[in-house]
């Protein structure tokens, strides 16, 4: 029976920590060590719990006061400084005579659950916004067409050298700009249709870089492009045209974030997110990273980065990254960003293999 219990505890995805009446660890299963960020090659048994897990004081409270905690949440700091949200329960252990023999705490990492909840809330908000925006866009388009038409008639009736033609031209340029914005909005709110087919992901990214080098022109002299690709083909099922547009958008954004020039790293690799918990996905993935040495961004900017119409550029429409996120999520993937002011930015795309 003991061997069976040991095997169950070894295979559990839930962390389990038990202590005796002296507060010394009697059980620490592998899941607990992984969640708490403890090194696998160390033996923590028979050591005081407060020396090993300085923030897990609930076990001491259970021993001292018989406190029972069920399904509560807290955040702990791992030895490497990262914080992890946990859902946990704590209670005393009793021997056959009914005396307290120790305490046990069970817990699980809920960071992925919290991120999924945030994403669900954001998707719900964006869906409502998209429906409203599509309705408004249709209503705007009709009077815009009328304004443009009448401005065209007015321009036709004015002499070529009439100075008022310049004012009419400004009206028509404004109408064209608004019409492009409305068109972009309608395109964003329409359901996305992917053309999925088997491709070599490395080749797709390499083609995107080729298009970027043509678009960038003279700016390439100021930019150092660095490739970090796995030395093999990476077959996957994706929409290559959509992915190429995303890569181009990320590369152009990287260049614009480096007005004085700098370096851009493009990486393609294979990862297992379940091992490094970098994303909410829990399956083998192909990753694409685009990193720059530019001006970086604040936490406030990062929190709004994938919202439609949010932009920090004077001539931007705020739909590039919002559309990229929509495309990646339609592939069943995820997109993340790491950045800080004056420390550049790194965008990472995760696509299920």
Task: Give a topology summary.
Blueprint: H1 2-11, E1 15-20, E2 25-28, H2 30-36, H3 49-52, H4 58-65, E3 69-77, E4 83-94, E5 100-109, H5 111-157, H6 164-189, E6 197-200, H7 201-216, E7 223-229, E8 235-238, H8 240-256, E9 262-271, H9 273-276, E10 285-292, H10 299-304, H11 320-330, E11 334-339, E12 345-352
What would you say this structure looks like, in words?
- It is a single chain.
- The protein has 353 residues and is an alpha+beta fold.
- The chain folds into three domains: 2-109, 2-Layer Sandwich (Beta-Lactamase); 114-189, Orthogonal Bundle (Helix Hairpins), CATH 1.10.287; 197-352, Heat Shock Protein 90.
- Helices cover 44% and strands 25% of the residues.
- The protein has eleven helices and twelve strands.
- The chain has helices at 2-11, 30-36, 49-52, 58-65, 111-157, 164-189, 201-216, 240-256, 273-276, 299-304, 320-330, and strands at 15-20, 25-28, 69-77, 83-94, 100-109, 197-200, 223-229, 235-238, 262-271, 285-292, 334-339, 345-352.
- Strands 2-1-5-4-3 form a five-stranded antiparallel beta sheet. Strands 7-9-10-12-11 form a five-stranded mixed beta sheet, with helices on one face.
- The longest helix has 47 residues, at 111-157.
- It starts with a helix and ends with a strand.
């Amino acid at each position: 029976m003991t061997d069976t219990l040991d095997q169950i505890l070894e295979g559990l995805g839930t962390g389990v920590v038990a202590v005796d009446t002296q507060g010394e660890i009697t059980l620490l299963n592998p899941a607990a060590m992984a969640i708490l960020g403890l090194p696998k090659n160390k033996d923590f048994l028979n050591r005081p719990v407060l020396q090993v897990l300085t923030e897990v004081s609930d076990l001491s409270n259970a021993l001292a006061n018989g406190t029972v905690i069920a399904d509560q949440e807290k955040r702990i700091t791992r030895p490497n400084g990262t914080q992890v949200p946990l859902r946990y329960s704590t209670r005393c252990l009793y021997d056959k005579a009914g005396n307290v023999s120790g305490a046990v705490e069970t817990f699980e990492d809920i960071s992925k659950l919290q991120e999924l909840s945030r994403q669900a809330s954001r998707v719900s908000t964006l869906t409502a916004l998209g429906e409203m925006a599509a309705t408004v866009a249709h209503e705007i388009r009709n009077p815009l067409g009328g304004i443009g038409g009448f401005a065209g008639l007015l321009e036709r009736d004015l002499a070529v050298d009439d100075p008022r033609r310049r004012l009419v031209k400004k009206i028509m340029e404004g109408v064209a700009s608004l019409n492009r914005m409305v068109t972009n909005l309608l395109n964003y709110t329409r359901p996305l249709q992917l053309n999925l087919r088997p491709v070599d992901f490395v080749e797709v990214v390499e083609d995107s870089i080729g298009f970027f080098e043509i678009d960038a022109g003279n700016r390439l002299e100021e930019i150092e492009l660095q490739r970090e690709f796995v030395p093999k083909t990476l077959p996957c099922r994706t929409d290559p045209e959509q992915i190429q547009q995303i890569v181009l958008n990320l590369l152009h954004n990287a260049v614009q974030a480096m007005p004085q020039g700098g370096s851009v790293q493009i990486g393609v690799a294979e990862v297992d997110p379940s091992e490094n918990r970098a994303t909410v996905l829990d399956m083998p993935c192909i990753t694409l990273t685009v990193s720059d040495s530019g001006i970086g961004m604040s936490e406030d900017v990062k929190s709004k980065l994938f919202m439609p119409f949010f932009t920090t550029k004077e001539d931007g429409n705020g739909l590039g990254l919002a559309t990229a996120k929509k495309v990646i999520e339609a592939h069943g993937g995820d997109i993340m960003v790491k950045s800080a002011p004056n420390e550049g930015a790194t965008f990472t795309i995760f696509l299920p293999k």
